[in-house]
Amino acid sequence: MRLCDLLFRAKFVCMLSVRNYECSTHDPEKWLELKLQKTASVNQHTQGCIGEESEEKVRYSPVYLDGKMRRFPAHFCKNLINFYLSFNQYDSARLVLESIPDPVDISVWNGLLAAYSKNRMYREALLLFRKLVLYPHLEPDDYTYPSVLKACWGLRGVREGEMVHARVLKSGFGSDVVISSSLVSMHAKCDRFGSAIKLFHEMPERDVASWNTVISCYYQSGQASKALELFEAMSSCGLNPDSVTLTTALSACARLGDLVTGRRIHDELIRIEFPIDSFISAALVDMYGKCRCLEKAREVFEQIRQKSVVTWNSMIGGYSLRGDSHACLELFVRMNKEGFCPTSTTISSLLMACSRNSDIRHGKFIHGYLLRHHVEVDIFIYSSLIDIYFKCGKARYAEEVFKIMPKENVVSWNVMISGYVTVGNYFKALDIFHAMRAHGVTPDYITYTSSLTACSQLAALEIGREIHKKINKIGLDSNEIVMCSLFDMYAKCGALREAREAFDKLPVKDIVSWTSMIMAYGSHGQAHDALQLFHELRQLSLKPDGVTFLAVISACSHVGLVDDGLYFFEQMMHEYGIKPGIEHYSCIIDLLGRSGRLNDAYSIFKSVPESKLDAGLIGTMLSACSLSKNMKLGQEMAKLLIQIDPNDHSNYVVLSNLYASVGRWDGVKKVRVIIRERGLKKNPGCSWVEVDRKIHQFFVDDDSHPQILLIYKCLRGIGMHMGKDRSHDRINNGMSFHD
């Protein structure tokens, strides 16, 4: 007999029994109770197999006969409620409960409350509880509160949860381990981690569920190390962790990169032959992957007989962290063959792997897969696509993705702004920033950080100041990352007073921020302030690094403090044990060259290993020769530069200027001929000016500006006034070659 026929017969029996109840001289109630219990028992063994037809026929139950509600004794109604609950007919069960004149049996209420909470009908559960407490002779018991508290955290009802908590304490159930554990869970799920942890520590007796909740609290709040401490404490209390405990502990190890603890937990599970389910398996793969132990991760992964999507994602994510796009795609193909559909996490991990090693070919393959299979793309996948195209230098592709992606989320705009900053297109980065505000999207700290970086590179001080006002207005002036970017912007724009104010307001000053402030002073000719700041740095526990000394020596070079610069160079090597790099030697050569000590500079140059192979160092030496007008040594340096890169236009320009500085016009002519014969061209020059918080950009032979006629008219006027001075300079200093 089919199940639907069996259920229909059960309903029919119930209907007949109610009719007989009104006219029979037998004891119909007891007979009907047995039938109801038998029918409910059958359903418990066959739950989940009810067809639409049988569920429709359930509605024709005794409750609705003749268009009115029948009233039955309480014990009969209790069985009828259970009968309806066994078929998930919650409204019918509620109507039966409401038909009871004085429902003083708390178990009837508990059954319906538990059913509501179990099936996520949280609002209905709380409404029922509010009715329950209106009955003066009806008291909630230790079965009532867990269901009600679950409904509270299901709705994130903090206020309702606090009221239930107060009632629990008032009724004397505060020491019940199950209710206490439910209270801890309620506070935790409502994001009241502090209250949850406090309640946990006040519990006289703790069960595994309460330990799991608090361990999860610490993990979710970013305190993975504290979560592991509690995991160890739980074991020392003699409680055996369950799957939830172990999954959270392994996830904490993954977040901390704690391979030792993670491996120890795994070894213990093997030793005690703990049944490893899909959640623990996925956590193990994720832990080993994030701890860069991919061989072990792969071993655990291959041992899993029934892999889940989470397991596949964990394994792909491990290879993604290494940037191994080939291994990621190999697993991706296997995953598809075994019938698993990739999720957003899968695709994001694949794209992250391609981005890490700039694998544009595989990145395009994933993009093509999304288009061919009509995969629903979310904001994270769009962002990953834009990121990989920018990382691979394909800004045009990134722009095309941005055109079709939703723009209501700040993430969409952030990835474009940071992408343009990454590739050095600071103008477009600020254009996107302004367009974002016009679109009505509120910037966050990431937006401001990237935009301030663009301002610092363009010296767009007015736009930077405007952003600073916005930062103060929305309360981001306490954000360390934003304030560091703000300070860097002011420093690079030469606004030293504002840079120092931002520097002094930094909540934490690390060696990078100290170095940036020293560099700002030095590059703008305030070497004494730079040295004073370096002295203050040395009084602290922070240890200057090679970049800090580079900033100090550079500051000395800008104002001609030769002896001080040499002193700090020696101090760096001998007192701090920092080995000089090419950049340090280049700075010292520049320092000596500016002061006319060319021979000392050349001695330093020759002492550097493989100095004749570094174009930057040779270029610095050539500039020193130009300042001293040492033709012989300058020609030698220029030849070295041309040997390294014979197609670099700037090398010939420097040599030509050296010839011009000593009046060797024949040499200038020869250099011009070489440039023309080799077809060398200088990259088009670009300049910009900030007027009224708007940046105006100009290129060579550019007439696209809307006010170009007025600009040329002004330039002609300036040229006429400068003509006399320019002629005078050429006569006295000789002609230089700057094209």
From TrEMBL:
PROSITE patterns: PPR. Gene3D superfamilies: Tetratricopeptide repeat domain. Keywords: Repeat, Transit peptide. PPR repeats lie at residues 105-140, 207-241, 308-342, 378-408, 409-443, 510-544, 545-580. GO terms for biological process: plant organ development; RNA modification. InterPro entries: E_motif (IPR046848), PPR_At4g14850-like_plant (IPR046960), PPR_rpt (IPR002885), TPR-like_helical_dom_sf (IPR011990). It comes from Ananas comosus. This is Pentatricopeptide repeat-containing protein. One of its GO terms (molecular function) is RNA binding.
